[in-house]
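Sorry, explain these tokens?

___
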Amino acid sequence: MLVYGVTTATQETIRGRAKRWVIAPHSAPAGADLIGRIFAARGLDSEEGRKMLACTLADLHDPVALPGVDRACERILAALTSGEPVVIYGDYDVDGITASAILYHTFIAVGGDTANVRTYVPHRLEEGYGLNAEAIETIARDGAKVIVSVDCGITAIEEADVAKKLGVDLIITDHHNPQSDGELPDAFALVHPRLPGSKYPFGELCGAGVAYKLAWWLCVLADGSNKVSASKRELLLELLSFASLGTIADMVPLVGENRALTRFGLSRIQRSRFGGLRELVSASGLDGENIGADDVGFRLGPRLNACGRMGHAAEAVELFTTAKGKRAREIAEGLHRQNLDRQAEERRIVEQAAKMAEELGMTGSDRRAIVLAHESWHPGVVGIVCSRLVDRYARPTILLCQQDGKLKGSGRSIPGFNLHGALDACASYLATYGGHDMAAGLSLTPDNYEAFLDAFSDHAASLLSPDDLVNELRVDTHALTNELNVGSVKEIDRLRPFGQGNPRVRLLLRQVRIDRDPGVFGAQGKHLSLHLRHEGRALRCIMWNSGSIRNELARGQLVDAVVTPQVSSFSGEVEPVIEDWRFAE
């Protein structure tokens, strides 16, 4: 299955009112219906497209093909059944939190009364990302014989050596990029879908996805049969809820295995047997709702991340592992309050950073990147602020703050610019760095800041043109209003969950006439309502937060509009959302 994309050589581009529209080229058969044209735009033939619509758990690959998983599970199983202390060492983001929960519940189920399992999450501000030698020494001193990392460790060369010297078997499960020189940690086992020589058929798993596959194979080994027991099968189905949270929040492509993990995991969140997850749903105001990818991205995920950003992610891991009843409710409500604090801090830093970037000339057409540092910025929030600035200015962004005598921070990128590769190019100025194409973390000494700023800016300028620095709307295909009926839109909805690599379907309605006087709705007329018509059918379309442009539009005008098709939950009618528009030429 292909990750959705377009080839710049043949794509059609149109300048809309606010963004550049990129219409995917496709070679759909003559007379293809709307869903067929959408398949073609996403590089799928009819058979592949129909298979995507019919996604099942059979789309998950056999976990034994995952590099290192057999050796890792044999050691873990031996430790669990003999009572050796095992520590799950997780990252502090949603992916690491959910991966930790997946392995914890599996280890307890497999080991039973003999299982001696606990979790460890580094403090974001005091310890930083990933495995650290001091923590490994402490864990070993407390008696651990096996440490299993989740969502981190593939670059932990020195830390793996420390574990080995201490007689601790370190099992690394990760999905991030290895070091650029190809060196790998000397650990007891490395479980990673993209290790050199890997034949695993899907390389885009997140940390929770890798943990899920390890959990699956551990259950197989524990039962001594390719068919696991009914109780373990039910556990694996329940753990899909955690896998879906991690997969969506970590923004890996929602295709292939990731699509199956999320599609079936989302459906289990609302009625999860894990009380902590149910309490998080309740604290997020989602009781009784069908949980979708947007709910994870905008409501559940931010509350979990807020714990790591504003406090200690150990509480979130506790929520998903051992917390019950009143304690689970207390943690979930605390995550909600921390998220409110995070939102306020984020708004403050966004406006301050935006002002700095504009005053320093980093947002003009002659600059290709934003690199800023400020001593008062909260280190747990700068990463998400980077994302906000990328959305606003459409260029790679790095934000740094003062911490322990160093500048530490995060970066976010734009499509087509490999952020990890850019940091590789500037590595001589950095103390540490890691991540992937679209997101990374880094640290450097203050005296290297100016040199790094210049080097990173020069690297971005060498690879990006002014035309790259425009936010884009990726459009699947042209459509007519009479093609958007309840049946066709519900078929499009079967492509859910939408996210990275499988974006929400966008359609271009070209030369549509405004059929009635534009209207507004919502408090103070905040939102816009437009009835748009091709021959034979008019559709009520809505445009959020756009009531202010009502007087720019009038009945009878011709417009082009990029819309996301949807069926209104109130009227039951097709009611597309307008994402951008322009007056028709």
